[in-house]
Amino acid sequence: MADESELNEPLVVSQIVSGQKNLFRLLVRQHERAVYGMGMSFFRNQDDASDFTQDVFLKAYRSLSGFEGRSRFSTWLYKIAYNTAINEVNRRKEYFSLAEEDAEKIISGAETPERITIRNAAREAVRAAVKELPERFRICVDLFFFYDRSYQEIESITGIPVNTIKSHVFRAKILLKEKLEGLSE
Q1: Among candidates 125, 34, 138, which has minimal Cα distance to 86?
Q2: Which end of the chain is less crowded, N or C, counting CB atoms within 10 A of the terminal residue's CB?
């Protein structure tokens, strides 16, 4: 099989559906971090995010024959993940933005204490500003900026119309700009 970064997912899915069930581990390995990240975004708890990840892959495995290849596999999987998370959030009534997550903790040795302090202050200001966004904006912002999903993919994942997603992202940018003005000073 080719390098996992070049994984032909529709082919792998068809092989799994045809009985080569052990190949599912390739899909899990390919998307596990992103699904877990979405779980952390929604639940802010490693145990819940791990349970969520396992639940999503179990649902995906059971529904694999329904993957038609009309979208990328990741879009299909993220839709399952999103719906699973939304159902659980509605049950719990909570949502946390991925922007609230701790950023990379490894800092290059060339950094000065002043730059580290400035970066940390900026990061905290952005987190606080994103946290204040309405939930419908945060979900679109997370998927667009942190998960690098297109508007069409976000529509497929969330069921929110593309023009509404564009509007949410646009309004979120304006709100963030207003909240963060003066930060560069």
Answers
A1: 138
A2: C
pLDDT at 104 over 60: no
Confidence of residue 166 (pLDDT cuts 50, 70, 90): very high
pLDDT tens track for 50-59: 999 999 999 9
Query: 3-state DSSP call for residue 157?
Result: helix
User: Residue 6: what pLDDT?
Assistant: 67
Euclidean distance between CA atoms 78 and 75, whole angstroms: 5
Structure pTM? 0.59
Domains, the chain, ranges and CATH? 1-96 (1.10.1740.10), 102-185 (1.10.10.10)
Q: Which long-range contacts (CB under 8 A, 24 or more apart) does 76-81 make?
A: 76/156, 77/27, 77/31, 77/35, 78/34, 78/35, 78/38, 78/143, 78/147, 78/149, 78/153, 78/157, 79/156, 79/157, 80/56, 81/35, 81/38, 81/39, 81/52, 81/56
151-158 vs 73-92: helix crossing angle, rounded to 10: 50
Burial class (CB in 10 A: 0-12, 13-18, 19+), 99: buried
The radius of gyration of the chain from alpha carbons, rounded to an integer in Å, stands at 18
Q: Which two tokens stand for residue 6?
A: 């070049």
What is the token pair recorded at 127?
């987190």
